[in-house]
Amino acid sequence: MSHREYPAASREKTFFGHPRGLAVLFGTEMWERFSFYGLQGILLTFLTASVLHNGLGLSDTVAVPIASLYSGAVYLTSLPGGWLADRVLGARRAVLIGGVIIMCGHISMAIPVSGPGLVFFGLFLVVLGSGLLKPNISVMVGRLYDGDSDARRDSGFSVFYMGINLGGFLGILVTPYLAGDDRWHLGFGAAAVGMALGLLWYVRGWSRLTNTGIGPSRPLADDERGKVVRVVVVSLVIAAVAIAIWAATGTLTLSTVPTVVTILSIAAAVWYFIYIFGEAKDVTAAEKAGLRAYVGLFIASVVFWMLYLQMGSILTAFASNSVDLDSWGFHLPAGGVQNFNSIFILVFSPIFGAIWLKAGSGFGTAYKFALGVGLTGLSWVFLGWLQGRADSGILVALGWMVVVYLLLTWGELCVSPVGLSVTTQLAPSNLKGQLMGVWFLGPAVGTPLGGQAYAFLVPKVGEQAFFYILAGIAILTAVVLAVFSPALHRLMGRGGHGPDAVMETPAEPRKDD
């Protein structure tokens, strides 16, 4: 970068023309994603592997909701994690504490003892730590550019997202091979090492973060602090009593926990919308109209995530049971099939970004959502057809999974980055943070909901019918959304956020960061 464009950057060493703190956050996030997606690559197969192969021997209908819960719960914990950073810890300490908790979770899972206790305790820690690290490291990236140009900020996030994709790709590539068919704790240990490397990189580069993320942005006042402590203590006591009663009834099982958490996620989403509209007292009528339009988009996003974020659960189970993983002349672990998505994201992100710029106002946000949900539903129609072939005794060739993941990726690029953009566009100025929290509730609700649908429907109708039922829900949602898109755009347009006003940013490499 030239001295004239960025005088501050020219007086110190930079990372590809960006603040050196970006390199610190790039490496930290890369290794954290290595650990997260590495674990996702082996979790389902570990849960379903027989005890003779050092697994837990769970049925697919029990294991799938657990794996889906892992993929979706991090979005739910991001809400309190973001609040703790804003009001108590500050983003920098939140990321450090979250990384330590994640590493401890992986270490707990890596201890080679029989029984599920340490494994599920480790999963709980990983979800908890991700809620602290996940939202706040992205906040710190943005704060590196306070007072800088939007173009440089967007470029910095593009570099940061490359770290996300690189870490996810390597995690899914390496961890399943290390785990093999019975070395699960070695795979869990690899995830722990990855997070440890990320923490070392983060601590080593602490000074390069300058003033980024030091202290809470809105610290609690003295009177607020006492109230928060009381609410937390009362909530913990109520939760402990409820869990004790639940356990005493004998219904606290691996099957019921995902169900209860799914119900709580739905309740949280409903409560959050009630809260948002209750807080919208000072917004204009046009902004309220935009919020009403957003409800429709949110419902569509829940359906999208319900299908899309089953890569580490339902799609991995399908790959393990029905796909010829040796059909390309080498053995690809079932969890490794997920990397088709990583590859396609890297290839098609800039292409879709260019398409949206070319389409401009001629193809509005609601239409993009409808297209994305429809493509995702189509991929599940294809899965249903493949399941029929597998049911007849024909192993599915690995190449067919390329088609499935290609359709899923195209669907993602129509929904995820567009959704982030329209969320910031439609949110009233005093509710931007809250509405972004609502957006993250979409995958928090949709992902475990898909796992619950699998557990409920598959024993009754079988896998093929299950795929067709969820595909039908997605396609019907897409059709309804397309029909009502003009009305939604009119509501959005009242606040200056219609298709003529919304210009989505280029598609980001991953949906979840």
Write the layout of secondary structure elements.
Layout: H1 7-10, H2 20-48, H3 60-89, H4 91-110, H5 117-143, H6 150-179, H7 184-204, H8 222-248, H9 256-279, H10 285-308, H11 314-322, E1 323-324, H12 339-359, H13 365-391, E2 396-397, H14 398-426, H15 432-461, H16 463-493
Parallel strand pairs: 1-2
Helix pairs in contact: 2-3, 2-5, 2-6, 2-7, 3-4, 3-5, 3-9, 3-15, 4-5, 4-7, 6-7, 6-12, 9-15, 10-13, 10-14, 10-15, 10-16, 12-14, 13-14, 13-16, 14-15, 15-16
Report on the architecture of this protein.
This protein has about 525 residues and is mainly α. About 75% of the residues lie in helices and about 0% in strands. The protein has 16 helices and 2 strands. Strands 1-2 form a two-stranded parallel sheet. Helix 3 (about 60-90) packs antiparallel against helix 15. The chain is globular. The protein starts with 6 loop residues before the first helix and ends in a 20-residue tail after the last helix.
Low-confidence stretches: 1-10, 494-509
Largest sheet: 2 strands, parallel
Strands of the largest sheet, in order across it? 1-2
Principal-axis shape: globular
SSE topology string: HHHHHHHHHHHEHHEHHH
If you compute it from the alpha carbons, what radius of gyration comes out, rounded to the nearest whole angstrom?
22 Å
Quickly count the helices.
16
Alpha carbon gap, first and last residue: 27 Å
Helix content: over 70%
Compute the number of strand runs: 2
What class do helices, strands and sheet pairing give? Answer: mainly alpha
What is the beta-strand fraction?
A: under 5%
